[in-house]
Every structure is written in structure tokens, then in C-alpha cells.
Amino acid sequence: MERELKQLVEVFENFLQAYTRRQTAMLQHTLSESLTTLLKESVLNEALMKVDDVADELQVSSETIRQWHKQGKIPGHYMSNRLFFFRSEIYEAIKKQDMLRLKLARRRKDKGTR
């Protein structure tokens, strides 16, 4: 009786492990499909920008963009360990933070006088 109970527990544990792996794989597949659909349909209706793209647009260094992101001043998104930004989120963050707005205005003014 004890041996049969051990076998039943072992069978049940194996079933749970297999079930969990299947559920995890299904969830990963569903999330991947959802992200792909979201990007294809362009729900946000804008392209992702790389760090250098944002730096060029704001006329600051790439390091400044990374620092602002680490400090929480501008939002960013990691995909495959790479940092990307949405233009609308960047400008919304700048509007909310006077310091960034003033710094960018000064840089643009300085570049225009050269």
C-alpha cells in the first residue's frame, strides 16, 4: 500500500511538472503573439526610437539620455536588452519637468547662435 501511494505521488508530481511547462509555453506564445500584433497594428501609432535617435532629436548626448532614463526623468522600454523610447512619452515627460525643458531650450539657443 505504501509503495503504491509513493508511485501515485510520483505520477502526480510528474503530471504537475508537465502541466506547468505546457502552461508556461502557452503563456509565452500568447504574450509573444500579443506583442507582435500590437507592434504590427501600431497601436501607439509611432515607431520606437533608439537612444541615439532621442539624443539627436533633443540635441544632447546619448549618455545624458541614459542618465535621464535611469533617474526616471524619461520613460523607456527594454526589448531584448536594448533600450527604446516612444517620442510621445519623451515629450510628455519633458512637459512635466521644467528642468529638462529649460535645459533643452538653452542647448537649442546655444546651437542657433553658433
Question: Which structural traits does this protein have?
Answer:
single chain, 114 residues, 2 domains, three-stranded antiparallel sheet, 5 helices, rod-shaped
Low-confidence stretches: none
- By secondary-structure content and strand pairing, the structural class works out as mainly alpha
Q: Roughly how much helix do the residues carry, as a percent range?
A: over 70%
Structure summary, number of beta strands: 3
Which sheet architecture does the biggest sheet show?
Answer: 3 strands, antiparallel
Coarse shape = rod-shaped
CATH top level of the largest domain? Mainly Alpha
Instruction: Give me the strand/helix succession.
Output: HEHHEEHH
Rg from Cα: 24 Å
Number of helices: 5
Sheet with the most strands: spatial strand order: 1-3-2
Provide the domain count.
2
Short summary of the structure?
By secondary structure, this protein is mainly α.
Write the layout of secondary structure elements.
Blueprint: H1 2-41, E1 48-50, H2 51-58, H3 62-70, E2 77-79, E3 82-86, H4 87-96, H5 98-113
Antiparallel strand pairs: 1-3, 2-3
Helix pairs in contact: 2-3
